[in-house]
């Protein structure tokens, strides 16, 4: 028991922790993601059940700052497309959710929200190829560097 407690202590000291909220609720088709005022997503990985027809991500902003100061969204794309989408975000602007309208690289993009708000984005799982690597990230200019994670498709 002492070894287990010591191992848990090491995980927290090194910054690694287990977050039950990071796991899919229910079937794995409804995912939850938390953003905060420290320009972070709490979850670094979201797991999608391949049996889903539609995937829905609920983004909650647990901070207090408004959209103008610390707005966040969630964008789903191929890992190889993330930097290009992020590079275009400033030009796209907040009115377009920091995503260029009609950008074919974007699988899904939520609204931009401020502290205390939440938003949901859904997409058809048929848009995902199990052989590819997918990410989720915040497209607000500069945020993607810290606010990104892996979207994993489970068999």
How many individual helices? Answer: 4
Written as H for each helix and E for each strand, in order along the chain, the element string is HEEEHEHHEEEE
Number of strands: 8
Strands ordered across the widest β-sheet? 2-8-7-4-5
Regions with little confidence, pLDDT below 50 for 5+ residues: 1-27
Mean pLDDT: 87
Q: Which percent bin holds the helix content?
A: 10-25%
Kindly provide the radius of gyration, computed on alpha-carbon positions and rounded to a whole number of angstroms.
16 Å
Report how far apart the termini are.
Answer: 34 Å
Shape descriptor: globular
Main sheet specs: 5 strands, mixed
Strand content: 25-35%
Secondary-structure content class = alpha/beta
Provide structural commentary.
With 155 residues, the chain is α/β, with parallel strands linked by helices. It has helices at 2-13, 67-70, 82-87, 89-92, and strands at 30-35, 45-49, 54-61, 75-78, 106-109, 118-124, 134-137, 148-154. The strands form two sheets. It has a five-stranded mixed beta sheet with strand order 2-8-7-4-5, with no helix packed on it. It starts with a helix and ends with a strand.
Topology (SSEs and partners):
Elements: H1 2-13, E1 30-35, E2 45-49, E3 54-61, H2 67-70, E4 75-78, H3 82-87, H4 89-92, E5 106-109, E6 118-124, E7 134-137, E8 148-154
